[in-house]
């Protein structure tokens, strides 16, 4: 009986205490929390990275209206590169 | 090119396609192992006379069958993401070709140095020479130099098409009004076939793509010859 409770409670602290008691009785749930929590955390972090670092996103329409026009040839915008080293690229385009 | 009753991918002609092949082998092996295990368990459960009505739960097996699938998924995800980012890298192409999809043919433009452009229609079945492949051959092939990073810009003139060559591991939609970019390196000389991969009307199945990879001198001779013809 994994989810039996003694009385209905809605406060977050009581919920966490209940979860901790259930975890002590069923330690098999720990890997589940770890992987699901880790996956959710990684997805949210990547979304945050995309929202804040992606040059296609403009938050401040007054001071930074079109960040996609200010790309640097040496900066790595992608999360991960396999073979390319962006810091070693030459900048052979004219400035505007 | 594909051959009858083929089950796997075509032989790779570019490094990216080799990576995709190896990743597919790796993942398919994992899938086969899991499926064999599950099938064995099903047969064992169905054909046993042992029953235990008092087993309710077990913490150890729950931990095992949470950890093991999670590790297997990570083992699949890491190479997959690596290949995904690898395919996006376009490192200093030496040649840029524009492929435009029309109803129902492709046209290729090599405009880096001179103004070379030509259309590529499928050879109708009744006009095939002996040894040519039905529904795959074209009158003009897209010739590229061997071992040279080539960028290809793909768009369409009328409706959606898709430029696909399985041996090179490329498929990119040709969208009217949009310029899609992809790049490849042909690692061996040869002729590589593909077919239009987005429904585009009556002759959607009859507008194939043929890429011919040749050494650089042959490419230069071919492009001079094509320029003189047009």
UniProtKB/TrEMBL annotation, chain A:
This is Cytochrome c oxidase subunit NDUFA4. Its main location: mitochondrion. It is a single-pass membrane protein. It comes from Xiphophorus maculatus. One of its GO terms (cellular component) is mitochondrial inner membrane. Belongs to the complex IV NDUFA4 subunit family. PANTHER family: CYTOCHROME C OXIDASE SUBUNIT NDUFA4, NADH-UBIQUINONE OXIDOREDUCTASE MLRQ SUBUNIT. It is found in: Mitochondrion inner membrane. Keywords: Electron transport, Membrane, Mitochondrion, Mitochondrion inner membrane, Respiratory chain, Transmembrane, Transmembrane helix, Transport. It comes from the Eukaryota. The chain crosses the membrane at residues 28-48.
TrEMBL record, chain B:
The chain crosses the membrane at residues 27-48, 60-85. It is a multi-pass membrane protein. It comes from the Eukaryota. Pfam families: COX2 (PF00116), COX2_TM (PF02790). Keywords: Copper, Electron transport, Magnesium, Membrane, Metal-binding, Mitochondrion, Mitochondrion inner membrane, Respiratory chain, Translocase, Transmembrane, Transmembrane helix, Transport. Binds a copper A center. GO terms for biological process: ATP synthesis coupled electron transport. It catalyses: 4 Fe(II)-[cytochrome c] + O2 + 8 H(+)(in) = 4 Fe(III)-[cytochrome c] + 2 H2O + 4 H(+)(out). GO terms for cellular component: mitochondrial inner membrane. Its main location: mitochondrion. SUPFAM superfamilies: Cupredoxins, Cytochrome c oxidase subunit II-like, transmembrane region. NCBIfam families: CoxB. Component of the cytochrome c oxidase, the last enzyme in the mitochondrial electron transport chain which drives oxidative phosphorylation. The respiratory chain contains 3 multisubunit complexes succinate dehydrogenase (complex II, CII), ubiquinol-cytochrome c oxidoreductase (cytochrome b-c1 complex, complex III, CIII) and cytochrome c oxidase (complex IV, CIV), that cooperate to transfer electrons derived from NADH and succinate to molecular oxygen, creating an electrochemical gradient over the inner membrane that drives transmembrane transport and the ATP synthase. Belongs to the cytochrome c oxidase subunit 2 family. This is Cytochrome c oxidase subunit 2. It comes from Xiphophorus maculatus (Southern platyfish). The lineage of its organism: Eukaryota, Metazoa, Chordata, Craniata, Vertebrata. The gene is COII.
């Amino acid at each position: 009986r994994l989810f039996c409770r003694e009385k209905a409670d809605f406060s977050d602290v009581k919920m966490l205490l209940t979860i901790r008691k259930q975890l002590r009785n069923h330690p098999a749930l720990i890997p589940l929390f770890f992987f699901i929590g880790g996956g959710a955390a990684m997805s949210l972090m990547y979304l945050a990275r995309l929202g804040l670092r992606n040059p296609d996103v403009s938050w401040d329409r007054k001071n930074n209206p079109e960040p996609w026009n200010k790309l640097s040839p040496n900066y790595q915008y992608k999360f991960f590169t396999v073979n390319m080293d962006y810091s070693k690229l030459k900048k052979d385009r004219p400035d505007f | 090119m594909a051959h009858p009753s083929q089950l796997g991918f075509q032989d790779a002609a570019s490094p990216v396609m080799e990576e995709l092949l190896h990743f597919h082998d790796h993942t398919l092996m994992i899938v086969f192992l899991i499926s064999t295990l599950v099938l064995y368990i099903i047969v064992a459960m169905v054909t046993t006379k042992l029953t235990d009505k008092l087993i309710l739960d077990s913490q150890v097996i729950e931990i095992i069958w949470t950890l093991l699938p999670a590790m297997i998924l990570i083992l699949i995800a890491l190479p997959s993401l690596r290949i995904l980012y690898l395919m996006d890298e376009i490192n200093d192409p030496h040649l840029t070709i524009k492929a435009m999809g029309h109803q129902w043919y492709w046209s290729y433009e090599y405009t880096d140095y001179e103004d070379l452009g030509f259309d590529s229609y499928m050879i109708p079945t009744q006009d095939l020479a002996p040894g040519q492949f039905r529904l795959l051959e074209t009158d003009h092939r897209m010739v590229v130099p061997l071992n040279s990073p080539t960028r290809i810009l793909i768009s369409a003139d009328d409706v959606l098409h898709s430029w696909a060559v399985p041996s090179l591991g490329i498929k990119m939609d040709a969208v009217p009004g949009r310029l899609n970019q992809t790049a490849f390196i042909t690692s061996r000389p040869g002729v590589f076939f593909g077919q239009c991969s987005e429904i585009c009307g009556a002759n959607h199945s009859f507008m194939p793509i043929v890429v011919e990879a040749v050494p650089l001198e042959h490419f230069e001779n071919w492009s001079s010859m094509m320029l003189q013809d047009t």
